[in-house]
Amino acid sequence: MKKSTKIIAGVALIAVGVLYALKVLNLFDFNAFFKGWWTVFIIVPSVVGLINDRDKTGACIGLAAGVLLLLAARGILEYGIIWKLAVPLILAVIGIKLIVGGVRSNKSYVISEQMKQEGKTPRQGYAAFSGSKINYAGEVFEGAELNAVFGGIDCDLRGALFNSDCVINATAVFGGIDIFVPDNINVKVNSNSLFGGASDKRVNRTFNNQYTLYVNATGLFGGVDVK
């Protein structure tokens, strides 16, 4: 459990304890099962996701949905209006994410364009309703395109040779992609995911190496992990 998650959980428990103590002393009327109490199980995880997750799209949608459902349960809004607002809300969040991603400087794009000009083609990896393992041991790695659809891909770069910055474009749709990278290679992850995510899970990370691996991850109910 991450430190921020522990802090949030600790504060929540302390708050509940204090409220119950005030109720016992007849200083405050507190009912844990208030109208719409079940929305807490949507709102709290979404708040934690906003703090911890690299890709916050799913957390934003979950938080907005939780708040709207709470308002409906309290009689402030009608449930029918919420269902009508659901689609435009999701589209707005995705649109904002695309705009932010579009205006952000991305060195990986420059590297990809330079590869095209030099006539280099990234290796392809694809898995559909199956699993695939790709090992680059002893090879000079220059980039890859990985696509997993209802399947999984293991891309092993621990024995690969790096002589320049490289780019991996990884897309996981109802699937998962694991990229195994040497500890002495810098990794920068850029995630554009909806109900999915991407993360660098290596324990030992080096940020002063000569070369950097850029991972552009797209997940739709899927994930991309660097290990």
Can you describe this structure in just a few lines?
With 227 residues, the protein is an alpha/beta fold. Helices cover 39% and strands 27% of the residues. The protein is built from five helices and ten strands, in the order αααααββββββββββ.
Q: What this model shows, in words?
A:
With 227 residues, the chain is an alpha/beta fold. It has helices at residues 3-24, 40-52, 57-73, 79-103, 107-117; strands spanning 123-128, 131-135, 144-149, 152-156, 166-173, 176-180, 186-194, 197-200, 212-220, 223-226. A 5-stranded parallel β-sheet has the order 1-3-5-9-7, with helices on one face. A 5-stranded parallel β-sheet has the order 2-4-6-10-8, with no helix packed on it. The mean pLDDT is 77.
Blueprint of the fold:
Layout: H1 3-24, H2 40-52, H3 57-73, H4 79-103, H5 107-117, E1 123-128, E2 131-135, E3 144-149, E4 152-156, E5 166-173, E6 176-180, E7 186-194, E8 197-200, E9 212-220, E10 223-226
Parallel strand pairs: 1-3, 2-4, 3-5, 4-6, 5-9, 6-10, 7-9, 8-10
